[in-house]
Amino acid sequence: MGSQEKFRLAQQFLERLRSGAAPDEIASLCTPDLDWNVPGDPGALPWIGRKTGREAVSNFVRDARMMVEGIGFDIKEVLASDDRAVILGHVHSRIKATGKLIDSEFAIVLTFAGTKIASLLLLEDSFAVSLAARH
User: Fold this and answer.
1) pLDDT at 2
2) Residue 44 to residue 95: CA distance in whole angstroms
């Protein structure tokens, strides 16, 4: 698969996230043994840390929809090569339990196996996320 196909898969992932697609529909874009990695404070939110499997995506989508109020989700750029796609953006959200805001730039690095996402690395201001999530 070339960079155009990787770009298309990254766009499809974003479209499903934005459209409110079912968590399992979004997870179906991933390999069954997906490597999920969101570095940060694993006690702050359930999706932070390293996990394996498609259910990491399903759980993230479900939990984020329950726990976070989206205020803004802006994609600045999607870059793709033959090996990976990188999504650069900005997120503005509120943790429902605390009422605290998160305002962070982010990068999502996707790698692929065939036509599926094999790994997802989310880089964001993990300190701000931890502060917002904790009472």
Assistant:
1) 85
2) 11
**Average pLDDT in the 17-37 region?**
97
Structure-token match 């993230």, residue found: 60
Task: Assign residue 36 the CATH number of its domain.
Answer: 3.10.450.50
Q: Which domain covers residue 122, as residue numbers?
A: 3-133
Q: Hey, what amino acid is at 35?
A: D
User: For position 99, what pLDDT does the model report?
Assistant: 97
How far, CA to CA in Å, does 14 sit from each of 22, 41, 100? 13, 25, 25
d(CA 75, CA 134): 27
Distance CA 87, CA 81 (A): 12
- Counting the structural domains of the chain, the total is 1
**Token pair for residue 94?**
């509120």
CB–CB of 97/132 below 8 Å? no
**What is the Cα 32 distance to its own chain's centre?**
17
